Amino acid sequence: MDIVGDRKFVEIPGGQILELPPLLVSDHGPRRRLDKVVDMATKVIENEDLVPSINLDHIATESDVGRRKMDMAINLVDLYVNLGRHWNWGNGILEWIRQCEITFETRLELRALLRPDIWPHAGRSSFVKLLEDKSIHPDGVNLEQAVGLRLTYRHLPPLADFSDQFLFYLNGKLADTAYQTWAGLSTDPISSLPPERFHLQVVSM
Q1: pTM of the full structure
Q2: Do 193 and 199 contact (CB within 8 A), yes or no?
Q3: Residue-wise pLDDT tens digits, 44-63
């Protein structure tokens, strides 16, 4: 076992670079027409009463109120598209972890690393740490939050199912909690996988 700082890394026999399955990710936003997503966002704003009506707003003109609603709708769409990218990455990562576990089971030198009765061993969250150690940082996507979001939602709900409070403030906290709970399911102690011993490709679909 190697120790670097406060992290422990499992020792893998031999010195060869081990090939892991490719990480397949649909790196795009929700698969809905943009005009439909904007329409959903507008309905969220109206249902949540986020912009005062023209009768209550004596200063703003009707066009001002309409412009404010459209600006807020566009902001919600941007947040939802980002949410969709996170979910897609989380979905790809969880499937990749399953493929990696199959790979580990077929290799004698790796099989014991996933057994909780072997110390030190690697848990499922070790694969997420491995991606981070391999400098896989997609633009604007937090990998742990992505996995947490996918753990929360088997399928990404439409924008209309979310409140503005969730999109603006709560989704990151919920995703963090889901990830930490999932990561804590592995029996301690858990060690990291040495990034220099593995190679993988990220394939954007």
Answers
A1: 0.84
A2: no
A3: 777 665 555 444 445 556 67
